[in-house]
Each structure stands twice: as C-alpha cells, then as structure tokens.
Amino acid sequence: MTTHVTCDLIGGPHQHVSARELDEFVARAVAGVDLDGLRVTLVIPDGTRSCPLPLLVGTLHWHLAPRVASLNAVIALGTHSYLEPDEIDRLLGVGGTDADGTPQPATLADAYPGLTVVNHEWADPAMLVKVGRIEGERIAELSEGRLSIGADILINRHVVESDVAIVVGPVFPHEVVGISGGNKYFIPGVASQEFIDMTHWVGALITSYEIIGTTGITPVRAMINEG
Known about the structure:
The protein is built from nine helices and eight strands. Helix content is 32%, strand content 17%. The chain has helices spanning 19-31, 53-64, 85-91, 108-111, 136-142, 157-160, 193-206, 208-211, 219-226; strands at 39-44, 70-75, 115-119, 128-134, 151-156, 164-167, 173-174, 178-179. It has 227 residues and is α/β, with parallel strands linked by helices. It is globular. The strands form three sheets. A four-stranded parallel sheet has the order 3-2-1-6. Strands 4-5 form a two-stranded antiparallel ribbon. Strands 7-8 form a two-stranded antiparallel sheet.
C-alpha cells in the first residue's frame, strides 16, 4: 500500500539548501509518518546519479534510526554492475576526506550505525519477489502499441519485505523515461531484468531524442507506474 504524505517544499532554481534547512525539512516530514517499530528501506541511486547522497542518507539516518526496528539501504542498480565495498564507501562518504579536507568516517558502521547497505541483486532470482503481472494487452495500451508482451513484476526482496520504502535521490531529464525519479527507483531501479529490458525497448522505439526531458506520463513512465 502506498501512503501519501503532504509536506512542505524547500529550495528551488538557483537556491542553495543548507544542511540545517535539510535537517529541519526531514524532521518535519518524518514526524508526520508512523514509522515507530517498522522495517524501513531507503532506495538510493548508484554512482551514475549525482546528488549529495551522504548528506541525505545521513540526515534520514539521524531521524529514523532511533525510531525504526531496522533500517536498510538498497542501491537501485537496475542492471548496472554491482558496487564493490570500496565503491559503496565512496558513494556514501566513507573513508578519505570531504571537499573541505575534513576526515570522513572510517567505516559505514561509524557513519551510519545500524544501517545495512546492499546492492540490488537483479541477477539472483532468490532476491526477487513477484508483486504482480501486467498482461500483454495492457502493455500494448500503455506502450501505445509498441509492445504487446506480458510480464511478471518482480521487485527486490528487501524492498518488498520492508514496511516502508523511501526513495532518496535526484530528478533529472532521462533519455528513456522522460524525467527520472519517483517510481523509476523501483522500476527499473530494483526490478527484474525482463521488465527493465521491456521498458528500455519501448524507450528506444520512441528514441532518446523524442523522449528526453518530456514531462508528464510518457509510455515508458506509464509502464513503470503500472508495475
């Protein structure tokens, strides 16, 4: 079940959001959601998406860890290569120094106590759970006639078995969907290769030139939202 939460917005074009403003924003947002004693999963981007991820995850961790039963982060790889431990460290600001030369926490456990970080294991059937199916006729409607093959919808086990999943990541123009973000972190982010391939094929038929930056519900976005 999807829970819709109304919250305020901060920032905007040409505006800088300070760490304090972010902290206050997150505090207000999570205060309005019943998360106490629940299993929470953060769905986060890999290194192909740019954002201040350590700050975002760190702020959420600070406000969530004391309240929830467990806190995991699944790296939404789609079918990208699995990240090695040192790559995960860099992604989340662990080891080395930051831009100001300040030493960063030495380990994930130091930076985010109690947080478990895993790759989306898209190639391991045991790590995927069927949550539904879209039949070929419906795919044809959603894709505007470009594809008519049905598919099971399989999603990462950690995400499915959590009580709450929170998407943490940026929004950019995207050459397959139109605009990234939102449900795209679930499909293709933590989905099976079969349905990922189907959505990307529809995007290829439309062409990157035609779809990139398109707002609203594109055929690919429609397939993602249906899943």
